[in-house]
Write a structure and sequence with these properties.
heterodimer, A: 215 residues, mainly alpha, two-stranded antiparallel ribbon, 2 strands, 70% helix, 6% strand, B: 187 residues, Rna Polymerase Sigma Factor, Chain: A, Arc Repressor Mutant, subunit A, 2 domains, 8 helices
Chain lengths: 215, 187
């Protein structure tokens, strides 16, 4: 980009004034003439005046594209539907209208019987519900008890085995102690006598041992 | 009075606010019509262009994302439509210069200063430019867009826009000098 172009574009962008631009481009005939032409068109653009703008129906375009149809405030159709529904309900329900003694009576056809039936149905369903609940609870309790009994049996068996083993060990211990004490008793009371007998027996070539040995 | 931004008006219009739409249209109706008038040279064509652009705008109002200014986006649509009209018309007839779209009843100060004659002469010379160059001159001088904005609207590089712009200035200069010589000779 040449320097002159930069100056010209600075003027176009409004960074320098027209007189500054004119002075700086004075030596460059090409850019000077461009500047003059641009200035003339710019003046012409600012002075533009035209005939009035034609009217265009933009509202119908807009309504078609962006506006939703307004909600209808007519309540006759709604009322009509409401009455139709009411008539249907009255005809299907057990509602009765009776003229009696110059008065109008509204009553439910077979009201008590229907209420009784409904009550019985409700009671029966409640009863069944309760029975089912109790049955379920009972089954649960039985299962729980059975499993606890099995656990108790296992525990007792184990305890018995343990106790029996302890008893046997105690018995063996007792026997060992007994033997030990027998040995001591023999050593103390009979061994010296035997030794004496052994040494005094001159004429006893067939010496026999007592047969008692230390355990 | 507080002036609503274009973006706020668009948002309201999308929500169905007819007043916002009306305000938006009235803001750009005149610049678009005059743009068409200068570029196409015929009030009927300018009216068609205006109607077409407003219809496209109405349909695509929700498409505006705010990446560029609304005016730039709108003139992007107008440029495309105008060039399309020019291309179609070129195949049939060349437009005439005798359309008088100046308001004779309300002369402004500038009109008095430069004279209606000069204005018409400049307009004629502008209309003799090739459509691509005329469009760049129109957008730069009359719509006050920067070169970058024009490049964005026309999906071209800024250098291409500048070369078209300077070529248009050179051509206008030559034509205006020729006209001056002819007038001096006639005088």
């Amino acid at each position: 980009m040449s320097n002159s172009q930069q100056i010209f574009e600075a003027w176009l962008a409004g960074k320098i004034t027209a007189s500054e631009c004119e002075q700086q481009l004075d030596q460059n005939s090409e850019w000077y003439s461009r500047f003059q032409t641009a200035q003339m068109i710019q003046r012409q653009a600012k002075a533009a005046f035209f005939a009035p703008v034609p009217e265009i129906d933009t509202m119908s375009m807009f309504a078609q594209q962006w506006q939703r149809p307004a909600k209808s405030n007519n309540w006759w159709p709604k009322l009509s539907v409401a009455f139709s529904v009411l008539a249907l309900v009255v005809s299907l329900s057990p509602l009765e209208m009776q003229m009696q003694d110059g008065g109008l009576t509204l009553s439910w056809r077979g009201g008590q019987q229907m209420q009784q039936q409904q009550l019985e149905t409700l009671l029966a369903s409640y009863r069944k519900e309760q029975q089912d609940y109790i049955q379920t609870q009972l089954q649960g309790t039985q299962q729980q008890q059975a499993s606890q009994l099995i656990l108790l049996k296992d525990y007792l068996t184990e305890q018995q085995t343990k106790e029996r083993r302890t008893d046997m060990l105690e018995l063996v211990e007792y026997l060992n102690q007994q033997r030990q004490s027998d040995w001591h008793y023999w050593q103390e009371n009979y061994q010296p006598s035997q030794a004496r007998l052994d040494t005094s027996a001159v004429y006893n070539p067939d010496q026999q041992r007592s047969g008692v040995r230390k355990p | 009075m507080f002036k609503r931004s274009d973006e706020s008006l668009i948002e309201k219009a999308i929500g169905g606010d007819a007043k916002a739409w009306q305000q938006l249209v009235s803001r750009y109706q005149a610049p678009l019509y005059y743009f068409g008038l200068r570029l196409l040279g015929s009030p009927d064509d300018a009216r068609d262009l205006l109607q077409d652009v407003l219809m496209v705008l109405c349909r695509n109002l929700a498409q505006y994302r705010g990446d560029s200014s609304f005016k730039s986006w709108l003139f992007g649509i107008a440029n495309y439509r105008a060039m399309d009209m020019l291309r179609k018309r070129k195949a049939t007839t060349e437009f005439t210069d005798d359309h008088d779209f100046y308001d004779d009843e309300a002369p402004s100060f500038e009109q008095q200063l430069y004279g209606q004659h000069t204005q018409r002469m400049v307009q004629q010379q502008l209309r003799s430019l090739p459509p691509e160059q005329r469009l760049v001159v129109e957008l730069r001088f009359y719509q006050q867009f920067t070169f970058d904005e024009i490049a964005d609207q026309l999906a071209l590089s800024s250098n291409t826009i500048k070369s078209r712009f300077y070529a248009a200035l050179d051509k206008l200069r030559t034509q205006l000098e020729l006209t001056d010589v002819e007038q001096s000779a006639n005088f």
